[in-house]
Structures are given as structure tokens and as C-alpha cells.
From TrEMBL:
Record's signal peptide: 1-21
Protein name, UniProt field: DUF5648 domain-containing protein
Domain of life, source organism: Bacteria
Keywords, ordered alphabetically: Signal
DUF5648 domain segment(s): 166-292
Pfam families (UniProt xref): DUF5648
Keyword Signal annotated: yes
Organism per entry: Usitatibacter palustris
Amino acid sequence: MGRYRLALAACAAALTLAAHAGPTAICNPDPRLNAVILDFPDVTNPLLLDIIRAVQVPASNRPLYDRLRQPTSIKELAGSRTLILYYDPIQDLDEIAQSMRNDVQISSAFTRILRDQFACDDPMMAPRPTPELLKIVEFHHTAQDIYFISALPAEIEWIDGGGAGGGWRRTGQAWFTYATTPGCADPEYNPVYRFFGTPGLGPANTHFYTARPDECGWLRNTQGWSYLTVAFGAKRPLVDIGCPADAPVAVRRLYNNRAAQNRSNHRYTSSDAIYAEMLAKGWLGEGVQFCVKNTALGF
């Protein structure tokens, strides 16, 4: 990602002015939330039926559906004057809600257009559960000299069993971290987004991980990388402070600088020795990218 870093800010700014349809300029910082709430004063407004119809059957009014930012479903709350639009969880709700407020026709039909949100600090909420603890395991393919990490137990077992083909071996690097959760949790970790090089367009046979919503959004708006899923949870490093107390282990990222050969690969490490070793081999250091609970060396 080193060669893309300078373009991020300019590209993200341009995307906010781009067409309504398609990926948002940044990714949803909290994919647990995927709804925009619209309150309407006039039940007879014909635009309401147009919106419902456009969401239920996008082909019936594709321009309107795109201006709504392509919701996946819609619900009208019984006994209220509220519509709820649901979206792909990776889409940024703030951007979607603001684009509808900026749309003169759509905004004229509603008294409020708000993104969904949790009230985790509400004292009436149930006690926060401890999220699932995950183990991130690093693999290396000797012949291709590429690295890969996974926190999915089934995927890890599959690779160990040769399902990904011969040549993959555990490096001994591993970490414990928490999953993101469907509700309020303690500790509450941020999503780490997982991408794969788009076949025929992007880097071959490689994955990329970022905890930054802006970097995630930029990647979704390029052709070289395809978004897959939220891979695991982590904390983002704090400016001038570093990793917080509930995620004290800093994980840094390195880039092999082989975009010209279409063989880009990134390695993630919390080891000073490994970081220095990879720099000596010509990899580019990209600094701390996310923070996890602790290391689990020997896996």
C-alpha cells in the first residue's frame, strides 16, 4: 500500500462528490449498524410509495434507488411515521444520511434523516458481554515468498491440512484479539477489514488488512482490491500515544514493493526483530496499523 498512500486523501475527497450509487468514500466504522432512519410528517406524500417501491423493486425506479444509495431492504414501523432503510454493513451511514439530506426532493419528504446508533453508555443497557477471543495465525508460502494471516479457525485448519495447496507453513507468529460483536461489548474493538487482490486486475494471490475506514473506503473504490469481510477486531493506535491499555500489542505492516510485478504482498508483525529483518530485505515499513490483546508465540 505504500505507493497508494499519497492518493488517499485526495481520492476520498473526490469520492464524496461522485455519483450517488456505489461504495461510500469510507467504510462503516461500526458494521454492526446498517440502517438509516427517516421520519415523515405526511403519509399522503406520493414520494413515500415511490421510495418503498424503488427499494423493493430497484428496476422500477433505478435513479431514485441510486439516490437512496442502494438500500438492501426497507421497513415501515407500525403505528409510526418512520421508514428504516437497511444497507450493506460496509457502507458508511453518515455519508448516506448526509447525501439524502442534500437531496432536495428526498429531504423535503422527511422531518429527520438519521443514521442508526447504539447507546452503549445508557445505564439501562444490559451489562456488556466480553466478546469472543480470536487467535490470528500467520502463514508463509516459501516458493512464492508471500505472507498471510487468518483468524478464522476453519480457514486455519484448512490451510494446515493442505487445502490451500502445498507450501504454506506457520511462521510461529500469532496474536490473540477480540472479535467485533453485534452489540455493546467490553472491550469494544474496531473492525479490521479484509481485502483480496481482484483476479486479473489486482495483485495475485494476496490479502490486505486495514483498520482504517478511510483506507478501506479508498480500496473499495478501486478495481485492484475486492472487499471480503471484517476479519477480526482490533484497536486503532492513538495519535501521539500508541496502543491503548486494553490492546497493548502494536501490529506493524510491511510492504514488499512489488506492485510493478503484480506481486504485492504485506506482512504484519509485532516483533521488532522481524520488522528490522524485513526492512533489511528491502520491504517498506508502514508503521503501526492496529493493536491487539497479546501475542501467542509458538502457534
